[in-house]
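agent> step 3/5: call structure_predict on target 'L-lactate oxidase' ([Clostridium] hylemonae DSM 15053).
agent> reason: downstream docking stage needs a structural representation; sequence fetched in step 2, passing through unchanged.
tool.input:
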Amino acid sequence: MIMTYEEVLANARTCMGEHCKACPVCNGKACTNKVPGPGAKGSGTVAVRNYEKWQELCVNMDTICENRPVDMTFEVFGKTFKYPVFAAPIGAMKLHYGDKYDDLEYNDILVSACADAGIAAFTGDGTNPDVMKAAAKAIGRKEGRGIPTIKPWDINTLKEKFALVKEAGPFAAAMDIDAAGLPFLKNLTPPAGSKTVEELKEIVAEAGVPFVIKGVMTVKGALKAKEAGAAAIVVSNHGGRVLDQCPATAEVLEEIAEAAGSDMKVFVDGGIRSGVDIFKALALGADAVLIGRPYVTAVYGGGAEGVAAYTSRLAAELSDTMAMCGAHSLDEITRDMVR
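tool.output (status=ok):
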């Protein structure tokens, strides 16, 4: 018998660590400023703000339209997915979420389960080189249906990581540039951290596949990413974990998407928890969304079955919202469908 998402959550509460509470709605309130842990930095309010700003948006119902099936198919970089959803990269699993899985085990389950569910996972990175090696192997086993996400290391370290990435044959690669604010990246030798446009140009060329820059929160940042040759950006504040007092991603998405134009894909994460939230993000200009913490809960609570249950729930919610708002394909979701 297939697990329900409610069963996945209940099971996750029996094996999560001390920080994450596997809440019925992952809104950042129970974990607030618990870092290490899944919470946000400083006052802990950015994760809460991310969630709440999506809830402040309303969808405009309109059922005076043709009655036909909804198509949620999403195409990007030569690949077709069932839904416009990615699992976001998460790392340091034991530190943040409990001892049940390490990074290697988590990425292995997530990549495979997401591919089987018709979507794809971004995999995390860490100071342990085995994390990227295992992630690359997991992506390779699923014919490249995953996006390895590399921290903003120095160029020599990046070249070593890209060698692993190329062996896996992923359809894209990414860097979470906002990870420059993570404590473990500071004071390293050689240094890791923020990158100039010229440095990013070299990194994009080294990747050899469409490159995604994650952690863009301003129009200026989006334009610099475009100048560097990024194929896509992720509007993201790293779940509030790298800088306190940031705006929510929902507050900046529309202006960033407008500035990015049609020649660079725009993804978004941060507090997106339902298919209705996904619809809102697409209406504001995103091409797809990333969801992080709830996929951790799904893996801890049910492994591959948990990932399938949560993805199915998102798909049902998105399909229903599209039908009730008169959008029968992703291209038909327009700005006037949210307020």
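agent> step 4/5: record observation. Residues 1-180+208-339 form a domain with the TIM Barrel fold (CATH 3.20.20.70).
agent> proceeding.
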